[in-house]
Amino acid sequence: MAMLHTPTTPDPGGPVETALEDHTGADVEFQWVPDASKDEKINSALASDTLAHIVSLTESDSSTVRNALTSGQFWDVEEYLADYPNLAEIDPQTLEAARIDGELFGVPFQKVKARYGVLVRQDWLDNLGLETPHTTEELADVARAFATEDPDGNGEDDTTGFYDRLESFDLGFRSLSGYFGAGDVFELNEDDEVVASFTTDAFTEAMEWYRGLYEDGAVNNEFVTVQKQNQYDGIAQGKGGIVVTGLFEAKNFQALSESADPDTSMSWALVNDMTHEDVPRRVLSDTNGGFGGWLAIPKSKVPSEEDLRTVLDFIDKLMDEEAFAAMTNGIEGTHYELDAEGVVTILDQPLWEQEVQPYASSRPSEKVVTYSSTTEYVDEGNQKMEENEEYAVTNVAQSLTSEAYNARWTEVEQTARDAYNKYIVGQIEMDEYQSIIDELEDGELGTITDEFTAAYAEVNG
C-alpha cells in the first residue's frame, strides 16, 4: 500500500515492478493511494483491516495512525532489524524518532536528517568585498550590508538581507534559533524536562538578534504576509540576498532567476557550518530526524514470525543499490543513461514520469545512493546535507505520546507563533512575549510538558 504523488499510476507489471520482482524474488503488487486522499483511505483501511502486507504510513503526527500502531495491529520489528544488512544500518536518530513510547511498529522511511543551511548571494558578497559568513555575528553584518550598501549596484535602495516568509517561526527562523542553541520544537532541559523550544533562553536570544536586524531593515518588512511562491519570486528578482532554507533550493532560485534573465549575475554561497559564539556546531533536523513515516506490517496479513521475516527481507532488498536505482531512475538504456562520472541523464522525461517517478515515495531510504548532477549547486547541496548528518539535532518528543499535545498543541503553537511575529515586527516587547509564554505554561503547554516529561522518564528510566 503505497503513497502516490503523481497524476497517474504506473501499469501493473511495468518495467520497474518487474525489475523489483527480479531483484527481490518476490511477487509484488502495489496498491496506490493518492496523496490527496491518503488520510481518508488509510483511516478506512485501518478501521476495516483491509490492509496490504506492507502499509505506508507517512503521517507520523496523526493520532489516528499512532493509535492504530500501538493498538496491537502491527508488528514491533525492532528485534529483527539486526538480521538484515541494510535494516541493521538504519541511523540511531532515525530509529529513535520512529519509536512510539519506546516501540518500533514498522521500518522507518529514511530521509536526509538535516537539509537546512543559509544561502547567501555570492555575487553580492563579491560586489561589496565581503567574505562568506560562518558565524551569526558575520551573518548579521552581511545582512545589514545587503540592506544598506547597494549590493546589486543598480543605485537604488531596493535590497534587503534576509528574505523571509510567513512560516518564519516554523522554518527559517526556527533553523536560525538552532545555531543559538535552541532545540527542534521540543528539547530536554537540564532538569530532564521535555520543554517547548520557544520557551528557552536560546530561542529568545535568537529572537532579539533577529528583531535587531528587522529594525535595521535587514529583514524584509512584510515577511509575515509573504507566501512561499512570493518568497521564491522575490529572491529570484534580487529583493533579498540571504535565505534560510534547504540547501537544495539554491539550484531552484538560480533556475528561476535565469528563466527571467538568462544573463543574471546571481550566484550563491551555501553555508552549512553557521555557529553562534561558543555554541557547538549544530543544525536542527527539518525531517523529524530523517524519519518519513513507517513501512508497517499488519499481523492480520502477516500472521507468523516466518512471514514477517519474509517481508522484512523484501524491504531490506529494496534498499540495495539495484532496487534503489530502479525506483529512482528506472531501467538503464530505457529511462536513463549513466556516464563515466556517475551523472544520470533521463532519456525520455514523459516516459520516466509515467513509469518510474511514482515509485520514489516507496523507497525505504532516500540515502542509498546520491547521483551526480550537471545542474549547478546540486552536488554541493548534496555534499553539505550529508555533512549536516553529524550535527543534526532532533525533536526529543517526536517518539513520545501526550494526549494533551494531540488535543491542544495546534492552538498552543499558534499562540506562540503570533507572539513571535508581533515581537519581531515591534508590536510587543520581550516582557510581553514572555508573559504570553508564561500563560501557556500555566495552562495547556504545562500539561503537555508534564505528559511528555513523564513519557520520556518511562521510556528512558
Could you describe the 3D structure shown?
With 461 residues, this protein is of the alpha/beta class. The protein is 41% helix and 12% strand. The chain contains 17 helices and 15 strands. It has helices at 15-24, 38-48, 63-69, 92-98, 122-128, 136-148, 172-179, 201-215, 228-236, 249-260, 305-318, 321-328, 349-355, 378-388, 403-424, 430-442, 444-460; strands at 2-4, 32-34, 55-57, 107-110, 116-121, 160-162, 186-188, 194-196, 240-246, 268-271, 283-284, 291-296, 336-338, 344-346, 392-393. The strands form 6 sheets. The protein has a 4-stranded mixed sheet. α1 (15-24) runs antiparallel to α12, α9 packs across α10 (249-260) and α15 packs across α17 (444-460). The protein starts with a strand and ends with a helix. 43% of the residues are buried. The model has no long low-confidence stretch (mean pLDDT 96).
Attribute tags:
17 helices; 461 residues; four-stranded mixed beta sheet; 15 strands; three-stranded antiparallel beta sheet; alpha/beta; single chain; 41% helix
* Count of DSSP H/I helices: 17
Number of strands: 15
pLDDT < 50 runs, ≥5 residues:
none
Overall residue-averaged pLDDT value? 96
Instruction: Give the structural class.
Output: alpha/beta
- Give the overall form: globular
Helical proportion, percent range: 40-55%
Q: What is the strand arrangement across the widest sheet?
A: 6-9-5-10
In angstroms, what separates the terminal alpha carbons?
A: 36 Å
Task: Please summarize the sheet with the most strands.
Answer: 4 strands, mixed
Q: Which percent range describes the beta-strand content? A: 5-15%
Radius of gyration: 24 Å
